[in-house]
Amino acid sequence: MLISACLASSDALAVLSSAGSWSGSVGVSVDGIGSNTSPVGTVQAVIPVGSTILSAYLYSTSRSSPSTLAEFNSEGITLAGQSVTFTHLISNSTAWNFFVARADVTSLVRTLTANATTSNFNWTVTEGARNANIDGEILAIVYSHPNLPPASVAFFDGGLSTTGETAVMSLGAAAMNPASAAFRGELGVAISFSCCNQLSTISINGSTISNFAGNFDDGLSQANGALITVGGVGDPAVSNPANYDSDHELYDLRSYIRTGDRSVTIFAQNPTNDDNLFF
């Protein structure tokens, strides 16, 4: 059994809201990219051959500007050379004026993966004229495949209040024994405008799983416009990483879930009051 949650819908202000949940023979692929170059770089996806794409979202995150859907949609942000249309705007009412736009790219990802003979994909991202204000993009994909074991996947998005917010994720079915070799439970988060020991803390069911969430693991340079990180493709799932540099925002939940649990409670806050935890 796989349980995967992403603190990743609504036009929300400083609230984490459900962006969707899926159960069955499902899996997830999440990756991010940020830079001040053109193109920005590539986002990766790992999707088993023969999968059906259920949902795919592209998020773009900025500081101060762009700040409206019209501005995000006029920037020229593209995925795999195709323009995308953002339909949901998320703002965070901190002094930093963070904004996140979300586009449904399900149709595009279905086209890009149709009849694929590989599980590994790399798609170019561009950002347009305000590249230096846009910290980057993340691509979140949910897929199904008949050979996958039963699983639950949930996305939450919004602008996290830096003083802390709670999200409750339904597991869809009672959790099996977390000690079983077939059990996986993971939580990935996305944070922008983070570097230099700016950090967030995250707990599951009242137990801390990280005191060091943050940094720019998916950014290509330590510079405004490139500060983004998300737990996903290529990242190890760990519990309570020892320090800032070893925290890649993907967490192993097996020690925090009990047999029979039907939900998990996720709490996150940003004590340094300067990061944007949005997914």
How would you characterize this protein structure?
The chain is mostly beta strands and 279 residues long. The protein is 5% helix and 45% strand. The chain has helices spanning 69-74, 106-113; strands spanning 2-7, 17-24, 26-33, 41-46, 52-63, 78-79, 82-83, 86-92, 98-104, 120-126, 134-144, 151-157, 165-170, 184-192, 200-204, 207-213, 228-230, 250-252, 263-269, 276-277. Strands 1, 2, 12, 14, 17, 18 and 20 form a seven-stranded mixed β-sheet that branches. Strands 3-11-5-9-8 form a five-stranded antiparallel β-sheet.
What radius of gyration results from the CA coordinates? Answer: 17 Å
Number of helices: 2
Class by alpha and beta content: mainly beta
Annotation, overall tally of beta strands: 20
Shape: globular
Largest sheet: 7 strands, mixed
SSE topology string:
EEEEEHEEEEHEEEEEEEEEEE
Beta-strand residue fraction: 35-45%
Q: State the distance separating the first and last CA atoms.
A: 23 Å
Q: Extract low-pLDDT stretches.
A: 7-14
Helix fraction bin: under 10%
Please, what is the average pLDDT?
88
